[in-house]
From TrEMBL:
InterPro entries: Endo/exonu/phosph_ase_sf, Endo/exonuclease/phosphatase. It comes from the Eukaryota. Residues 24-162 form the Endonuclease/exonuclease/phosphatase domain. PANTHER family: BNAC02G09200D PROTEIN (PTHR33710), OS06G0205337 PROTEIN (PTHR33710:SF79). Gene3D superfamilies: Endonuclease/exonuclease/phosphatase (3.60.10.10). This is Endonuclease/exonuclease/phosphatase domain-containing protein. Pfam families: Exo_endo_phos.
Amino acid sequence: MPDSSSTLDVSASLSRWLHMALVAWNVQGLGNNDTVRALKNLNLKYQPAIIFLSETKQRKRYLERVRRKIKMSNSFYVEPEGAAGGLALWWCDDARIIILHSNKNIIDTKISIKGEDVWFGSFVYGPPYDDEKLSFWEMLARRRVDRDSKWCVIEDLNVVASQDEKMGGALIDQTSAKWYLDFLDITNLLEIPMKGGMFTWSNKRSGEDVILEKLYRALATVEWSALFDKAIVLVEAAIASDHCPLVLCTDGLSRRSKREFKFESKWITEEECYNVVKEGWVSNTQRSNDKLFVGKLRRTKSRLIKWSREKFGKNRRTEEQLIH
């Protein structure tokens, strides 16, 4: 099955019109070439000031080699515990970042981009285990006490807040959802608008077996939202991971940006979609790895567009039903 549960809706040249971009991604291990290549492509596309990776499952020495490949200047790491977990924060020279606190679930920072307003950023990987979740939300709520102004929380919170945020599988855990909603009440954080699809995680199955969930989100105080009043979160296509990368664009999208391609989250519920992607991805072309990868993406996109038109037609209402 395709790795995506999102809608891709931005121009490849978009980064020229962004005030600041921040990429956050649960990579589920950064030890394979496909993941590293996907990360390099995200970096080239958005030229982010900051990259946050969770579940790296790699030690600092290896992660430093990857960081140098994508030409990020600075770094901070939380080492994995055995073969699980691990956090990485990379940033360019335009960003000034002070590390305030870190553990296996958070890298807490104070940030200024190009010498402009200072704000707090908490880069988070929520615990997947129920017995750790309540203490995690209590820990994160305590961060709010020290910062009653500009604060942003981003990344994989590992919680589904309502049944509307899940498709397929068992019902959501109501206790975990309540803890999260209580956290929002205590901290008065608001969710930054997301563009590109609701679901950020997929079990990579199709038909009746598919499960889609919204596990990622970006939250901010009113003061942070006033500072970046056009901020938007883009949900990128998932490649080499079950999770979709998030791209936080503090200055929104340029009106001049061109819509290139949309991957509809519910395409993956159609059995035919697997064969369409497979046909686009298979290639016997003898090219360099980078050119081969780009060619695969282009062919896959072309076949998906053609298949979607034949399958669903061009009726606008049908397209909107697919998205929502």
